[in-house]
């Protein structure tokens, strides 16, 4: 069964770091663009970062310089390294994979309906 599984979430103090992982099984991730989205309580799902099949990256302005997305095709996994975390980063983080590029509406335009694969999410809580 093809799926994405996120891990690495948890409770961290402001200024701390976490690394999220998005592992694919049942399909090969290297031909897909992979994005991280997050959803805070009472808010809509929003794109955080995206990495294309060629390694090109996009970041939301609120995380640029603090978060780094990367992929290890040998591990069939995409990572999100989060540093200098802030309370406003608290959310459930989801990864998603799609055959279209990060410039596509699935990532930039909130057109989630056609996304090929979604994970179930991992909770990140930033609090002292």
Describe the protein in words:
The chain is mainly beta. Helix content is about 5%, strand content about 45%. The chain has one helix at about 105-110, and strands at about 5, 10, 20-25, 35-40, 45-50, 55-60, 65-70, 75-80, 90-100, 115-120, 120-125. The strands form 2 sheets. Strands 2, 4, 5, 6, 9, 10 and 11 form a 7-stranded mixed beta sheet that branches. Strands 1-3-8-7 form a 4-stranded antiparallel beta sheet, with no helix packed on it. It is globular. The relative contact order is 0.30.
List low-pLDDT spans. Answer: none
Helix percentage range: under 10%
Order of helices and strands: EEEEEEEEEHEE
- What is the alpha-carbon Rg in Å? 13 Å
Q: Give the averaged pLDDT, no decimals.
A: 95
- Approximate shape: globular
For the sheet with most strands, the description reads: 7 strands, mixed
Supply the helix-strand structural class: mainly beta
The total count of strands amounts to 11
N→C terminal distance: 39 Å
């Amino acid at each position: 069964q093809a799926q994405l599984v996120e891990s690495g979430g948890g409770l961290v103090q402001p200024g701390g770091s976490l690394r999220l992982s998005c592992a694919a099984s049942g399909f090969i991730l290297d031909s897909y663009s992979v994005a991280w989205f997050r959803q805070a309580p009472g808010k809509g799902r929003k794109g955080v970062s995206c990495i294309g099949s060629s390694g090109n990256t996009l970041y939301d302005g609120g995380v640029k310089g603090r978060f780094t997305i990367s992929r290890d095709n040998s591990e069939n996994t995409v990572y999100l390294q989060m540093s200098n975390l802030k309370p406003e980063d608290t959310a459930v983080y989801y990864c998603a994979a799609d055959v279209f590029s990060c410039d596509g509406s699935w990532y930039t335009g909130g057109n989630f309906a056609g996304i090929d694969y979604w994970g179930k999410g991992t909770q990140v809580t930033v609090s002292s």
